[in-house]
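User: quick one - fold this with magnesium ion bound?
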Amino acid sequence: MSSLERSDVARLAALARIEMTDADLDRLSGQLAVIVDAVAKVAEVAGEDVPATSHPIPMANIHRADEVRPSLAQDAALSGAPEAEDGRFRVPQILGEEA
Amino acid sequence: MTAVDAAARDWTRATAAEMADALAAGEVTSVALVQAHLDRIAAVDGADPSEGVHAFLHVNAEEALATAAAVDADRAAGVAMPRMAGVPIAVKDVVVTQGMPSTAGSRILEGWIPPYDATVTRKIREARMPILGKTNMDEFAMGSSTEHSGYGPTRNPWDLERIPGGSGGGSAAALAAFEAPLAVGSDTGGSIRQPASVTATVGVKPTYGGVSRFGAIALASSLDQLGPCGRTVLDTALLHEVMGGHDVMDATSLDEPVPAVVEAALAGAAMDLTGVRVGVVKEISGEDGGFQDGVKQRFEESLDRLRAMGAETVEVSCPSFEYALAAYYVILPSEASSNLAKFDSVRFGMRVEKETIEKTMLATRAEGFGDEVKRRIILGTYALSAGYYDAYYGSAQKVRTLVQRDFDAAFAQCDVLVSPTTPTTPFKIGERIDDPLAMYLNDVATIPANLAGIPGMSLPAGLAPEDGLPTGFQILAPAHEDARLYKVGAALEASLVADWGGPLTAQAPEVAQ
Amino acid sequence: MTTMTYAQAMDEFDPVFGIEVHVELNTRTKMFCGCANEFGAEPNTQVCPVCLGLPGAMPVTNEKAVESAIRLGLALGCSIRESSRFARKNYFYPDLAKDYQISQYDEPTCYEGALDVVLDDGTVVEIGIERAHMEEDAGKNTHVGGTGGIQGADYSLVDYNRGGVPLVEIVTKPITGMGDRTAEVARAYVATIRDIVRALGISDGRMEQGSVRADVNLSLRPKAVAGESQDDVPFGKRSETKNVNSLRAIERAVHFEAARQASLLLAGRPVVQETRHWHEDTSSTTPGRSKEEAEDYRYFPEPDLLPVQPAREWVEELRGTIPEHPAKMRARLREEWGFSDLEMRDAVAADALGLIASTVEAGTTAQSARKWWMGELSRVANDREVALGELPVTPAAVAELQGLVDSGKINDKLARQALEGVLAGEGSPTEVVASRGLEVVSDDSALEKAVDDALAAQPDVLAKIQDGKVQAAGAIVGAVMKATRGQADAARVREIILQRAGVEG
Ligand SMILES: [Mg+2]
Ligand SMILES: [Zn+2]
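Assistant: Sure. Structure tokens for the protein plus magnesium ion:
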């Protein structure tokens, strides 16, 4: 009863911005279905009464004082950029606007 | 030791503690130590990824020698020095190093030179330890064999056809091949301990938050922990004290002093464990099959040694461990899918240029990431997606609570818990590459500690009789009690080394050159 | 399809709306790193590994931002959650450095509040607040080529200076029952939020610079038929109009959307649940991404950050710092000051209430304070094209100036000259009066001499005065004022003239 279909993998890959060819989907879908079925057992044990743990060591309220620290110089900030122009990171055309 | 002896000595075989002492005594220079290791790297690491150990992705010769020369000059001028000043070190490529390539084993970061240092890198520089280079790893630390590196696998110095463990196979192999006396590792589900086990070296995953993660390229933020790797328990402790401590740049960093691990290692070497209660965890000690005979045998012998030194052993049960592996393989991919989103070709790293940014991102990530990374990103994207969150991520976080409760109950009865580190000795390269689930089983004994944030150590337990390959002994302690690992570990090590006549790594076959 | 007007739409349908307001906090540094939070720097100079999302970098929460968010929550009547936390909102976009936004999701710090909004006619409307949560801003894309808009651009350039700037997002509950006052209420609500964040001092509240930004959700549903409660009529499909960034635009966006949706519905066509973009130039909206193909944001707790658990005592301490509701404060001040509606409205519009209040506090009457700020100072501010508050004069100086007038040391005309000196940086009003020699001439002997001189120069006038044509004294007053360069007290001069003429006193 695999819960993960090939079409799911294609949809998830698009959501994760990883292009997948048919060959990629052929190769990865089967493996992923097996893994998903294996890890699905997490839902078997933990009941309603068990709280979720996000952080292994319980801590809270770790804040930073509102004090300015040095920023990177512009050329250091851009040093890894595949492409830069006028002190900015250059990217190909953006289609559609985000929230 | 006379000057002639010191000059003739092969310093790559020395422990880091011995190197520090010899430097302080003026018996050797840091430049000589660094040069000896650079020579060793040149001799065994392979000129090409297809040959040799291939532990290093980048050798930082020039800067390491310059650091060493500055240390030597200051020492000659009588400047006060940190204890480990001048002792060379290798750094896992997951840790960012300003001015030095940092790829996390991924092609998507090929050629990226970070404009900043990780906190651990800064601490190593402040300790004035020359950085020999960056070590190979499974891409973004996803793997247990270093076969998933984007730059070719690292080979186990015990047998170049076998895996050195992962994801920190490069760091462990560098130690086992005498290419470095110390190395930095990262452990998300066993990536320090499992490579230590299969290369007969020592590795420690500190308590979560004990070493700053700032500048460690994140795999799974709630599981990741940087830690020290060495060939002896004491060396590992010395590095632990260099790396550890509170950091304001990491909100999850523990605001408490570094545990006195060097003192604990020295105390343990006296081989007296009277009053120490050692729990053998039923679920990960090999009772239920799946563990190699020789691994179990060496583990049992190690327990005998602990008892002989006065420790009391009891069996404890952690029933939720049955679900730990599944929980881990939900939490890790989920967090990783988000942590790896930033590799989008905009600010750094690879770009496969297409007509729109969306297509560029799709193509770049398709080309830049390897299959294991893609698998885990898809898995994590699935586990977090609308309608599946509760069943997967939510449930896994609950299993995490159950694992913690099991540990709490076990530690109520024991000071430390123990198990074999890995079910088997190192397997052959390629043997499990197409079977992710089989690969994941390597981590069955190491993963629970990451889920609970507790510290763990792996140290050599001897060679498996049937294949002559290393087995590892894992020690776990409650959170914040890292010192217990070193006390018990140093005791067991002293007992074993007394019989072996020296560290186990000395028995490794010479790497074919 | 018939095009409806807003009024017609409101006749035919029952509107339901909700507003999301993003407030940029004026902390010194960003939400999760120590980069300066300042508007207008060179691109990518206020960035670091954290806000650039470089591999390995980690966020740490800005304590001041947490404090500001809690204070804002308290001002909105919200409960402050004992344990709240951050989550990651995952989506890919080039201005979002990490490709996830750190925001709050299922456990926002402030939740369940209510805010009174006072309309122009004094009607008070209570707006339910769903939540107020902390998050980080994104960077800024500049589109190059084409028309400069996103459509048809050749490529884009990204500046991350704004990336990571702290935001509080305030989300209302669905607001119903406002009928044709919907647009007015929407506008008044955002104006109130703006006033509150300014009064709290947590944001400059400048909508034109984007430090307060609003998204307007609107849907229409049929009016209840006889015997049916409007509450039982399900909501219609809504549109979400993004980035409506002025008060006027909010009203217009509601007008446009209501009319657009009504036109569709009356034509029997469906309203699509979607995001729409606001166009200031045409006062209209156009479709963006439709919600059907909306992203799956895959929220999960941010593992790099720990829960925010504000101590109860701290929250109570912060509650003590919450200023009075701006509309209620205005009503109280109008009463106390005795201003007319018009005077009050003008003062509010000029952003002069605080200045007037401080001037009154420094010891002058409300009307005098109003007269200065809304008169001479407004004129100067207008000439200089600056806000009143930016003029180089303090309320204390204005009070001092009025004090000099009240004590008769200077007259109104001299006071204006003294103010000119103050604005020119010559010192306090008293100092300017001294250094410019502006004091009213009150030494009678000097005045008497000037009067005698003037009377001697115009004997015919003296004769007229003595004849009983007292109003002729004006010419002599004028001459004396001229001779003393305006520094004489005109009333006193008149008295002396009449004395000299032997007419009175
Ligand atoms: Mg938001
Ligand atoms: Zn920053």
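One thing worth noting: The longest helix of chain C spans residues 247-266.
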